Amino acid sequence: MRLADATWTDVRDADVDVAFVPVGSTEQHGPHAPLGTDTLDAVAVAEAGATAYETSVGDDASGDGALGEVVVAPPIPVGVAEEHRAFDGTMWVSPDTFRAYVREAAESLPSHGIDRVVFVNGHGGNVEALAEVARRFSRDDAHDGYAVAFTWFEAVGEHASDMGHAGPLETSLLRATHPHLVREDRVATASDGAADRWGEWVAGVNLAHDSDEFTDNGVVGDPSAGDAARGEELLDRAGDALADLATAVVDREPTSR
Prior knowledge:
The chain is of the alpha/beta class. It has helices at residues 8-13, 37-58, 95-106, 127-139, 168-177, 187-192, 228-251, and strands at 16-23, 69-72, 116-121, 146-151, 201-202, 205-206. It is 36% helix and 11% strand.
Protein backbone atom coordinates (compact mmCIF):
# COMPACT_ATOMS: atom_id res chain seq x y z
CA MET A 1 0.00 0.00 0.00
CA ARG A 2 1.33 3.40 -0.98
CA LEU A 3 0.76 5.64 1.98
CA ALA A 4 0.28 8.73 -0.16
CA ASP A 5 -2.48 7.02 -2.18
CA ALA A 6 -4.35 5.62 0.83
CA THR A 7 -7.00 7.29 2.94
CA TRP A 8 -6.64 7.51 6.69
CA THR A 9 -9.36 4.90 7.09
CA ASP A 10 -7.49 2.57 4.74
CA VAL A 11 -4.51 2.78 7.06
CA ARG A 12 -6.66 2.42 10.18
CA ASP A 13 -8.26 -0.76 8.85
CA ALA A 14 -5.09 -2.31 7.43
CA ASP A 15 -2.98 -4.94 9.12
CA VAL A 16 0.41 -3.30 8.61
CA ASP A 17 3.54 -5.19 9.56
CA VAL A 18 6.20 -2.73 8.46
CA ALA A 19 6.74 0.58 6.71
CA PHE A 20 9.29 1.09 3.97
CA VAL A 21 10.56 4.68 3.82
CA PRO A 22 12.38 5.31 0.52
CA VAL A 23 15.25 7.75 0.88
CA GLY A 24 17.06 9.14 -2.14
CA SER A 25 18.77 12.26 -3.37
CA THR A 26 18.47 15.00 -5.97
CA GLU A 27 21.92 15.12 -7.49
CA GLN A 28 23.80 14.85 -10.72
CA HIS A 29 23.96 11.47 -12.42
CA GLY A 30 26.04 12.36 -15.42
CA PRO A 31 24.72 13.70 -18.71
CA HIS A 32 22.46 10.70 -19.34
CA ALA A 33 20.53 9.99 -16.11
CA PRO A 34 18.12 12.22 -14.18
CA LEU A 35 18.86 14.10 -11.00
CA GLY A 36 16.22 12.03 -9.25
CA THR A 37 17.86 8.67 -10.01
CA ASP A 38 18.53 7.73 -6.40
CA THR A 39 14.97 8.51 -5.35
CA LEU A 40 13.43 6.71 -8.32
CA ASP A 41 15.56 3.64 -7.60
CA ALA A 42 14.72 3.66 -3.88
CA VAL A 43 10.99 3.81 -4.61
CA ALA A 44 11.22 1.04 -7.23
CA VAL A 45 13.08 -1.25 -4.83
CA ALA A 46 10.73 -0.43 -1.94
CA GLU A 47 7.71 -1.36 -4.07
CA ALA A 48 9.39 -4.52 -5.34
CA GLY A 49 10.25 -5.46 -1.77
CA ALA A 50 6.68 -4.84 -0.64
CA THR A 51 5.35 -7.11 -3.37
CA ALA A 52 7.88 -9.82 -2.55
CA TYR A 53 7.06 -9.62 1.17
CA GLU A 54 3.32 -9.75 0.69
CA THR A 55 3.67 -12.61 -1.80
CA SER A 56 5.74 -14.59 0.69
CA VAL A 57 3.11 -13.96 3.35
CA GLY A 58 0.40 -15.21 1.02
CA ASP A 59 2.41 -18.33 0.24
CA ASP A 60 2.95 -19.15 3.92
CA ALA A 61 0.53 -22.05 4.24
CA SER A 62 1.76 -22.94 7.72
CA GLY A 63 0.18 -19.87 9.23
CA ASP A 64 3.45 -18.97 10.95
CA GLY A 65 5.33 -15.73 10.51
CA ALA A 66 4.08 -12.39 9.24
CA LEU A 67 0.41 -11.87 8.45
CA GLY A 68 0.10 -8.26 7.36
CA GLU A 69 1.16 -5.92 4.61
CA VAL A 70 3.72 -3.25 3.87
CA VAL A 71 3.15 0.49 3.77
CA VAL A 72 5.44 2.32 1.34
CA ALA A 73 5.83 5.87 2.59
CA PRO A 74 6.40 8.88 0.32
CA PRO A 75 10.08 9.22 -0.60
CA ILE A 76 12.50 11.65 0.98
CA PRO A 77 14.09 13.17 -2.14
CA VAL A 78 16.90 15.40 -0.84
CA GLY A 79 19.78 13.87 1.07
CA VAL A 80 23.42 14.28 2.04
CA ALA A 81 24.87 15.14 -1.36
CA GLU A 82 27.13 18.16 -1.05
CA GLU A 83 29.90 16.14 -2.70
CA HIS A 84 28.10 16.79 -6.01
CA ARG A 85 27.72 20.55 -5.46
CA ALA A 86 29.80 21.43 -8.55
CA PHE A 87 27.15 19.95 -10.85
CA ASP A 88 24.07 21.99 -11.73
CA GLY A 89 20.74 21.01 -10.22
CA THR A 90 22.17 19.11 -7.26
CA MET A 91 20.42 19.76 -3.94
CA TRP A 92 21.58 18.82 -0.47
CA VAL A 93 21.05 19.34 3.23
CA SER A 94 23.47 18.99 6.11
CA PRO A 95 23.77 15.60 7.81
CA ASP A 96 22.24 17.10 10.97
CA THR A 97 19.19 18.39 9.11
CA PHE A 98 18.83 15.13 7.21
CA ARG A 99 19.04 12.97 10.33
CA ALA A 100 16.53 15.10 12.21
CA TYR A 101 14.03 15.22 9.35
CA VAL A 102 14.14 11.51 8.51
CA ARG A 103 13.95 10.45 12.14
CA GLU A 104 11.07 12.78 12.99
CA ALA A 105 9.16 11.76 9.87
CA ALA A 106 9.56 8.08 10.79
CA GLU A 107 8.52 8.76 14.37
CA SER A 108 5.06 9.68 13.07
CA LEU A 109 4.42 6.03 12.27
CA PRO A 110 4.47 4.35 15.73
CA SER A 111 1.63 6.62 16.85
CA HIS A 112 -0.52 4.75 14.31
CA GLY A 113 0.70 1.33 15.38
CA ILE A 114 3.31 1.02 12.63
CA ASP A 115 6.34 0.39 14.79
CA ARG A 116 8.65 -1.45 12.38
CA VAL A 117 10.44 0.67 9.77
CA VAL A 118 12.98 -0.02 7.05
CA PHE A 119 14.67 2.96 5.42
CA VAL A 120 15.17 1.95 1.78
CA ASN A 121 18.16 3.94 0.62
CA GLY A 122 19.33 4.76 -2.89
CA HIS A 123 22.26 7.12 -2.22
CA GLY A 124 25.69 6.28 -0.86
CA GLY A 125 26.05 9.66 0.83
CA ASN A 126 23.07 8.85 3.07
CA VAL A 127 24.43 5.57 4.45
CA GLU A 128 26.24 6.82 7.54
CA ALA A 129 23.47 9.24 8.54
CA LEU A 130 20.71 6.65 8.05
CA ALA A 131 22.51 4.14 10.25
CA GLU A 132 22.48 6.70 13.05
CA VAL A 133 18.81 7.52 12.40
CA ALA A 134 17.88 3.84 12.71
CA ARG A 135 19.79 3.52 15.98
CA ARG A 136 18.22 6.64 17.47
CA PHE A 137 14.74 5.58 16.38
CA SER A 138 15.20 2.12 17.87
CA ARG A 139 16.50 3.46 21.19
CA ASP A 140 13.75 6.02 21.67
CA ASP A 141 11.84 5.32 24.90
CA ALA A 142 8.86 7.33 23.66
CA HIS A 143 7.67 4.46 21.46
CA ASP A 144 8.24 0.77 20.85
CA GLY A 145 9.56 1.24 17.32
CA TYR A 146 12.48 -0.52 15.69
CA ALA A 147 14.19 0.51 12.47
CA VAL A 148 17.03 -0.50 10.19
CA ALA A 149 18.55 1.02 7.07
CA PHE A 150 18.83 -0.92 3.79
CA THR A 151 20.85 0.24 0.77
CA TRP A 152 19.69 -1.55 -2.36
CA PHE A 153 22.99 -1.70 -4.26
CA GLU A 154 24.67 -3.46 -1.34
CA ALA A 155 22.14 -6.31 -1.60
CA VAL A 156 22.55 -7.45 -5.23
CA GLY A 157 25.22 -10.13 -4.84
CA GLU A 158 28.16 -10.06 -7.23
CA HIS A 159 26.71 -7.04 -9.03
CA ALA A 160 27.54 -4.86 -6.03
CA SER A 161 31.19 -4.66 -7.07
CA ASP A 162 30.14 -2.73 -10.20
CA MET A 163 28.52 0.10 -8.27
CA GLY A 164 29.98 3.43 -9.26
CA HIS A 165 27.95 6.57 -9.83
CA ALA A 166 25.51 6.79 -12.73
CA GLY A 167 27.36 3.69 -13.89
CA PRO A 168 26.17 0.23 -14.91
CA LEU A 169 23.94 -0.57 -11.93
CA GLU A 170 22.00 2.66 -11.64
CA THR A 171 21.66 2.99 -15.41
CA SER A 172 20.46 -0.57 -15.91
CA LEU A 173 17.91 -0.25 -13.10
CA LEU A 174 16.59 2.95 -14.70
CA ARG A 175 16.43 1.20 -18.07
CA ALA A 176 14.21 -1.43 -16.46
CA THR A 177 11.97 0.90 -14.44
CA HIS A 178 12.06 4.36 -16.08
CA PRO A 179 13.52 3.87 -19.58
CA HIS A 180 12.06 7.13 -20.89
CA LEU A 181 14.28 9.08 -18.47
CA VAL A 182 17.59 7.65 -19.71
CA ARG A 183 19.11 9.87 -22.39
CA GLU A 184 20.35 6.99 -24.52
CA ASP A 185 21.93 9.34 -27.05
CA ARG A 186 24.30 10.55 -24.30
CA VAL A 187 25.34 7.20 -22.85
CA ALA A 188 28.41 6.86 -25.09
CA THR A 189 29.61 10.31 -24.05
CA ALA A 190 28.94 9.48 -20.42
CA SER A 191 31.02 6.31 -20.74
CA ASP A 192 33.90 8.04 -22.50
CA GLY A 193 34.19 10.67 -19.77
CA ALA A 194 33.66 8.39 -16.79
CA ALA A 195 36.17 7.78 -14.01
CA ASP A 196 37.21 4.22 -13.21
CA ARG A 197 36.63 4.48 -9.48
CA TRP A 198 35.22 6.76 -6.82
CA GLY A 199 37.82 9.12 -5.36
CA GLU A 200 41.58 9.51 -5.20
CA TRP A 201 43.03 7.04 -2.72
CA VAL A 202 46.32 7.06 -0.82
CA ALA A 203 47.00 4.75 2.14
CA GLY A 204 43.32 3.86 2.34
CA VAL A 205 42.25 7.51 2.48
CA ASN A 206 40.15 9.26 -0.15
CA LEU A 207 41.81 12.63 -0.80
CA ALA A 208 38.84 13.92 -2.82
CA HIS A 209 35.95 15.46 -0.90
CA ASP A 210 33.89 16.35 -3.98
CA SER A 211 33.12 14.27 -7.05
CA ASP A 212 34.30 16.84 -9.59
CA GLU A 213 37.83 16.27 -8.31
CA PHE A 214 37.99 12.89 -10.07
CA THR A 215 35.21 12.85 -12.69
CA ASP A 216 34.62 15.62 -15.21
CA ASN A 217 31.11 14.54 -16.20
CA GLY A 218 29.97 13.10 -12.86
CA VAL A 219 30.06 9.45 -13.93
CA VAL A 220 31.99 6.62 -12.28
CA GLY A 221 31.85 3.30 -14.12
CA ASP A 222 30.55 2.41 -17.57
CA PRO A 223 26.81 3.09 -17.92
CA SER A 224 26.68 1.08 -21.13
CA ALA A 225 27.55 -2.11 -19.21
CA GLY A 226 24.00 -2.76 -18.08
CA ASP A 227 20.80 -3.23 -20.05
CA ALA A 228 17.17 -3.49 -18.94
CA ALA A 229 17.51 -7.24 -18.40
CA ARG A 230 20.27 -6.64 -15.88
CA GLY A 231 18.12 -3.97 -14.30
CA GLU A 232 15.26 -6.44 -13.85
CA GLU A 233 17.66 -8.86 -12.18
CA LEU A 234 18.88 -6.12 -9.86
CA LEU A 235 15.31 -5.21 -8.97
CA ASP A 236 14.44 -8.84 -8.24
CA ARG A 237 17.53 -9.37 -6.09
CA ALA A 238 17.15 -6.14 -4.15
CA GLY A 239 13.40 -6.65 -3.70
CA ASP A 240 13.84 -10.21 -2.44
CA ALA A 241 16.61 -9.14 -0.06
CA LEU A 242 14.43 -6.33 1.26
CA ALA A 243 11.54 -8.75 1.81
CA ASP A 244 13.81 -11.10 3.76
CA LEU A 245 15.04 -8.19 5.86
CA ALA A 246 11.49 -7.03 6.52
CA THR A 247 10.55 -10.46 7.82
CA ALA A 248 13.47 -10.35 10.26
CA VAL A 249 12.57 -6.80 11.35
CA VAL A 250 8.92 -7.74 11.94
CA ASP A 251 9.91 -10.80 13.97
CA ARG A 252 12.53 -9.02 16.05
CA GLU A 253 11.74 -7.96 19.60
CA PRO A 254 14.31 -5.40 20.77
CA THR A 255 15.28 -5.96 24.38
CA SER A 256 17.15 -2.77 25.24
CA ARG A 257 16.02 0.84 25.34
